[in-house]
Each structure stands twice: as structure tokens, then as C-alpha cells.
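Box S1 | Example of a co-folding query
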Amino acid sequence: MKNEQLSPSEIEKKAAALAAVEFVKNGDLVGLGTGSTAKYAIEAIGQKVKSGLNIKTVATSIKTAQLAASFGIEVMDLSKVGYLDISIDGADEFTKNLDLIKGGGGALFREKIVASLTKNSIIIADSSKLVAALGAFTLPIEIVPLAYQYAFEEIEKLGGKCVLRKADGEIYKTDNGNVILDTDFGLIKKPENLSMRLNQIVGVFAQGLFIGLTQKIIMAKENSVEVFEK
Ligand code: 5RP
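Box S1 (continued) | Returned holo structure for ribulose-5-phosphate
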């Protein structure tokens, strides 16, 4: 889509995505993210593939796998891959020390596998995603349905107010057949601590705090691109 048809935040998403795609090299094994920002990166990678870039990819969601295939990008089975050279994904919120909330698009589990496999995990974002502290965006927590009530109560004991995610009036199901609790913890003072405590709850399949999993964040703001890295 041409830039003049895009809103200011879409222009920023696209600019961040195009800057990130420059890091993809011939021969790379690439993780493809999910969401409206990642979509610009997938489209740009598709154009490079058409021009001769030789890469293999894995996808963080069924939707992304389908989108990538529609651009002629080869998508491998995630379960067969033991490392990735680079991944490009979006985020719902991030701080300057590279902590993230992800999962607004429901793909948090596969996104976390991909981020964990990647030597160079790049997050792309428009300027609205930068926050001083995580928590204005509700934290997505993916729950195995059988453990729903138990996990709900344990998360509430930790101070989170849980809302079961719905889509079109129906309970939302992830690509893994699980449900999502969108959880309000207020501003999260110690994300690493909360992340560890959530991981200990039986029935929590994945949670959207991404701590220590990101090497670089590329954020576009108006006409410039800013890079955050440790
Ligand atoms: C999907 C995600 C997305 O990266 C996140 O929701 C950001 O999406 P968008 O780029 O559409 O704002 O975590 O599970």
C-alpha cells in the first residue's frame, strides 16, 4: 500500500518494518512475527524473495504462515528448527530496557518460541508502543482450558484482574486450542518477578511478558527511526 493511503501510525509501522528487513541476509533462517506491524515486514521480505533473496522462515501463527506463503516465502515447520538467525516481530508495549508485552494478536506462545530460538530478535514498533513501565496494555495469558478456573483464581491472587478474551461474541481460541485471559495488573513494577510467578501456575501455557528475549527494538517516530539495544 502506498504511504499516502496510510495513517501516521501505519506509516511508522511500515518504516520500522522496512528498517528491520535490511538486517535479513541471504541464507538466513528467519522468524516471522504476527500482527499489523509484522505484516509490513513479511510483505517487504516477500518482495526481496521475488528479487532473489534466498531464505527459509518459520511463522509465529497460522495467519502469518498463510500470509508468507501468499508472498512466495518458504515456511518451515517450527518444530523442526533448533535456531534462527533473525526474527522480526511486533509488540503491544515495550520499555527502553527491551522488556515487552506481546500477545495482543493471540500468537504469544509461538512468538515466545521464535524469540527464544533467535540470535537476533528484532522488535518493530510505531512510537505509541514505547512506555515508561509495562502494564497499560492488559497482559495476555494463554490458559489450557481444562485448568481455566484454577489458573484464573491463581492469577487473581497475584493481583491481576482477568477478562476472558472473546472475538465476535465467541470465546477466542488460539492456534494451540487454548483460551486467553487479558489481565490488568496495573503498572508492572517488576516484570521479571511477575513473569516467573505466572510461569509457575499450572495451566498457564504462555504469558505475554517477554523479558530478556529481545536484542534490538526499531521504533519509527514521525520521519525518523530510533533503535534501542543493550
Ligand atoms: C501478536 C503480537 C503482536 O506483535 C502485537 O499484538 C502487536 O501487534 P500490532 O503490530 O498489530 O500492533 O504480539 O500476538
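The CA atoms of residues 162 and 183 lie 4 Å apart. The chain has six helices and 16 strands.
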